[in-house]
UniProtKB/TrEMBL annotation:
Domain (FPG-type) ranges: 232-270
Known EC number: 4.2.99.18
Gene Ontology terms for molecular function: class I DNA-(apurinic or apyrimidinic site) endonuclease activity; damaged DNA binding; oxidized pyrimidine nucleobase lesion DNA N-glycosylase activity; zinc ion binding
Protein name, UniProt field: DNA-(apurinic or apyrimidinic site) lyase
Enzyme class name: lyase
Catalytic activity: 2'-deoxyribonucleotide-(2'-deoxyribose 5'-phosphate)-2'-deoxyribonucleotide-DNA = a 3'-end 2'-deoxyribonucleotide-(2,3-dehydro-2,3-deoxyribose 5'-phosphate)-DNA + a 5'-end 5'-phospho-2'-deoxyribonucleoside-DNA + H(+)
CDD domains: AcNei2_N
Species lineage: Bacteria, Bacillati, Actinomycetota, Actinomycetes, Kitasatosporales
Domain Formamidopyrimidine-DNA glycosylase catalytic residues, every copy: 9-87
Amino acid sequence: MSRIMGAMPEGDTVWLTAHRLHEALAGQVLTRSDLRVPRFATADLTGRTVLDVTPRGKHLLTRFEGGLTLHSHLGMEGSWRVFDAGARWSGGPSHQIRAILGSAARTAVGYRLPVVELLRTAEEEEAVGHLGPDLLGPDWDPGRAVANLLADPLRPLGEALLDQRNLAGIGNVYKSELAFLARVTPWLPVGELPPGIPERLVATAQRLLEANKRSFDRRTMTSGRNPSQKLYVYGRKGRPCPRCGTPVRKADQGEAGRERPTYWCPRCQTGPTS
């Protein structure tokens, strides 16, 4: 039996991935270890006990006895899957496997992970110390998150929300949905947000991630009055806006080479559109 971990890797997905990995491996002694990245190909973690698996924004920290941590990131297409002993692995071809951590009872397999690195636990901050307050972490600080967002008043809201140095955990889905809920376009400079909106955006982001963190495939942003509609605008290009019926639009946002698809309602959301 496998447990799928990945798909739309935002902060809630990463939190649940860490929770499932911790449930499967914490307290277990590794009987198999295989890091399929050149830098750590010879590293051997077998015989070490897994202490815990902790999420940090969109990053995963798997800690082992002896002061070692495996740092991984799902990127856009990565996933971790857990298989019971003897089960057939499914998650992609073998050449896409980047990490294997196995105990006598279960094996965790990381597919298409863009980041896999082994570091000393005492040096974790070198990998994640740049991150802002974690929306689902014990360090969550809404005041600091708001201050970070407003530190560059000319920056478009969508880009500021995606910058993990401001607050950690928001991805492309939440970016588009939060802008819709705030009734502004993702291109509006954060310094032009109406009074009180930055605080409301941050509070809404934390509430929604918290509400969605225990499910991979049932992420819901809407009020729930229409069970078939879970998102307001994301992925709904050409479909009617749930508020006014205007067709939802889609465009890329971000620096060249790092553009992200962005959805918005041209009638309900005020501000520039590119």
